[in-house]
Specification:
Helix content: 10-25%
CATH architecture of one domain: 3-Layer(aba) Sandwich
CATH superfamily of one domain: Alpha/Beta hydrolase fold, catalytic domain
Largest sheet: 8 strands, mixed
Distance between the termini: 35 Å
Structural class: alpha+beta
Number of helices: 12
Low-confidence stretches: 1-36
Strand content: 25-35%
């Protein structure tokens, strides 16, 4: 029997024994009743100890009024309303619902025009049919609609003059991945799903058709420009004579805003070009004032900012500028010609990741900070732009929720999160820190968890929880106990646990910071993690630099596995779950965007983790769900095969019936196994 088969058999035997043991109430050696189930500081134990940590308001469509829910710590859910001039009052759920009656616009039935005269459908003969609901007559617009080339009737855009624009997506020939489902059925069941990988030349293709209801005609609009392009629809409220969409080049360095009018004319409006790529994570376009004002995010100057165009695609002015980052537009006051948007790094001597709300004119004048507190702000702006609900906190300060006006003035103190039971239970907030990247210049920001019985005179192993980005960092800045990586619980096993950013991750910093790893998807974050841990050990005497672990999920797993093999004498143990170790078979967007691809012949190449297998010295635990449709188990299997061929020892945990994110039972089991692994090899 092959070694991998033996490991799989042993795993299933082990799983069965564990289940039998749990059912009998027996506690295995080295476990407690808590660790055998859910440990003391895991999320399920902490959740009842806190009240709501955020208020999400439901605004009235015209009045300065909203309602919200509030959960008491370990108690009931309450409903409140607030109105300018009246303040807050308690309501019933039914009363709360009545406050937002008619909030939602009327939605016509599937495929029905705005005036309820016309309806599009695919009939039993697979024909695209247009029915006049008044005369009860039907016209056939297209015969024999193919299953893999369907009309997206739910996305039809009805235009004035009884015309419409209808998208159609061609899936024919798109690559499919296979999957074997074992746990959910009496017998194994095979399935497949579409999955494009970098370099594919047959990809999903969007087509657009212009229809004329009165004439009963349908014709295609030619939207082709680049081979293997992607098309993304662009929302434009209040525009009824055209649609907008962005088309993206395969190389991801050019995007173009286009429109199709009611006559079927294609108009190229704005072309955004950037090297090495157009930022897909921060990029945003907002269309206002019936299409006469267009706002586009771009990092063309080296920093992300908002630019103002007219309806014909002519650049009017930058809205923001400087060495800081403008983020998502939260609201647009068309009458006052004001934008409300998130900003990062504008305020001196503050954490550049803190999210603040700003207001500025369409012409770029009158920039104003609306949330002055030195904290992370989660915000909601009313439809009329007169009321702002602001939830602000830090990692160590529980959320405060206030109501502001359009000038940022506090109108009311709404709520203060109750976390007294949490602290009484023994929970402690992580500590913020700042270090330098491997270049000795770039600031990196992070969090540290200590055992709650921490003794500064002792030496503790250190574990780095990692995620490479490039679209985010897993370092949060607000108050939360819902730690999806369970770092606080891991620290209670006697570890110092840290998480910090690195060059090539967050898009909230400069373009140079975010694109640092372009073209080196495997290796770019590794040096900064090692250098960061070395700095932490030099600064804090309680950190034992001879006992270093690393842990990550998904992209973090790729990073963790690559790190222990790239620096085999530094990292002693690693846990990697559901990792994309071979990005040649990971999704097309990821590889082509962050690694890069040549325009000729669609060539794609990237370093894989399995190439590093012969370098493994430390202890490695791999885990994967066996039906993961995001990061297919083939990633783990290829790394396992490479490790076997290199004659390297490792641990493998396969979670039956689990996809990319594990369910409660399997998640808790994995967390316990992860903690046990580090305790075995680092203590």
């Amino acid at each position: 029997m092959h070694r991998l088969q033996i490991l799989s058999v042993l795993f299933f035997i082990q799983t069965a024994l564990a289940a039998q043991t749990a059912a009998s109430g027996i506690v295995l050696s080295g476990e407690t009743k808590d660790t055998a189930n859910v440990e003391r500081y895991d999320d399920p134990k902490l959740e009842p100890l806190v009240s709501s940590l955020e208020t999400v308001p439901w605004f009235h469509k015209s009045k300065d009024r909203f309602w919200y829910t509030w959960h008491k710590a370990g108690g009931d859910t309450e409903y409140y309303a607030w109105e300018k001039g009246k303040g807050k009052w308690k309501v019933t759920r039914h009363g709360a619902d009545s406050l937002v009656a008619n909030r939602w616009p009327k939605i016509n039935p599937y495929g029905t025009s705005n005036d309820s005269v016309w309806r599009l459908s695919v009939d039993s003969s697979k024909n695209l049919a247009l029915e006049n609901l008044k005369t009860k007559t039907t016209a056939t617009l297209c015969r024999g609609v193919e299953q893999d080339f369907p009309f997206e009737i739910t996305d039809v855009k009805w235009l004035r003059g009884d015309k419409f624009i209808l998208p159609r997506v061609d899936h024919r020939g798109v690559r499919k991945f296979g999957m074997m489902w074992c746990g959910a059925y009496n017998t194994p069941m095979a399935s497949s799903y579409e999955y494009e990988i970098p370099g594919d030349t047959v990809v999903k293709t969007t087509h657009y058709y212009i229809g004329d209801c009165e004439r009963g005609t349908l014709r295609e609009v030619d939207v082709r420009k680049w081979k293997c392009q992607e098309i993304v629809a662009q929302k434009a409220e209040g525009v009824d004579d055209r649609i907008y969409f962005w088309r993206k080049k395969k190389t991801r360095d050019v995007s173009q805003l286009c429109s199709i009018d009611s006559e079927g004319n294609l108009n190229e409006l704005i072309t955004e070009s950037a090297k090495p790529r157009v930022n897909p994570d921060m990029f945003e376009c907002k269309i206002a004032n019936k299409g006469n004002d267009i706002f586009v995010w771009s990092d063309r100057t080296g920093w992300g900012h908002i630019y103002h165009y007219d309806g014909h695609g002519r650049l009017l002015n930058p809205v923001t500028s400087g060495n800081w980052t403008a983020g998502r537009i939260c609201a647009i006051d068309e009458k006052a010609k004001l934008l409300f948007f998130y900003g990062y790094g504008h305020e001196a001597r503050r954490n550049p990741y803190y999210q603040h709300l700003y207001r500025v004119g369409f012409n770029g004048k009158g920039l104003k900070l609306l949330t002055p507190e030195n904290a992370e702000h989660k915000l909601f702006v009313s439809p009329n732009c007169k009321i702002i609900v602001d939830n602000y906190s830090t990692v160590s300060e529980a959320p405060t929720i206030v109501v502001r006006d359009a000038n940022g003035k506090k109108l009311d103190m709404l709520e203060k999160s109750d976390v007294s039971k949490l602290y009484a239970y023994g929970w402690k907030a992580p500590e913020q820190f700042k270090i330098k990247a491997a270049d000795g210049k770039t600031d990196l920001y992070g969090l540290m968890w200590k055992p709650y019985d921490f003794d500064p005179s002792k030496k503790y192993p250190i574990i780095s929880q990692v995620y490479p980005g490039p679209f985010t960092e897993t370092v949060w800045n607000d108050f939360t106990v819902f730690d999806k990586y369970h770092n606080a619980a891991l620290a209670q096993r006697g570890f110092i646990v840290v998480v910090f950013g690195h060059r090539g991750s967050s898009p909230l910093r400069s373009k140079a910071y975010n694109t640092f790893g372009y073209g080196n998807l495997r290796d770019y974050p590794l040096a900064d993690d090692k250098a960061g841990i070395e700095q932490i050990a030099a600064k804090y005497s309680f950190v034992d630099i001879s006992r270093v672990g690393i842990v990550g999920h998904s992209g973090g797993a790729m990073m963790a596995a690559a790190a222990i093999m790239t620096y085999p004498d530094f990292y002693k143990a690693a846990v990697a779950s559901s990792g994309n170790y071979d990005n040649t078979v990971y999704n097309r967007m990821w590889g082509e965007t962050y690694q890069g691809i040549a325009d000729d012949n669609a060539r794609f190449s990237v370093k894989t983790v399995q190439e590093l297998a012969p370098r493994l010295k430390g202890h490695l635990m791999l885990a994967t769900g066996d039906v993961d449709q995001n990061v297919h188990p083939i990633h783990t299997q290829r790394l396992v095969e490479a490790l076997i061929n290199a004659n390297k020892d490792f641990d493998l945990l396969v979670l039956p019936g689990q996809q990319h994110h594990y369910d409660f039972t399997h998640q808790m089991y994995f967390e316990r196994r992860k903690r046990d692994f580090f305790e075995r090899w680092l203590k």
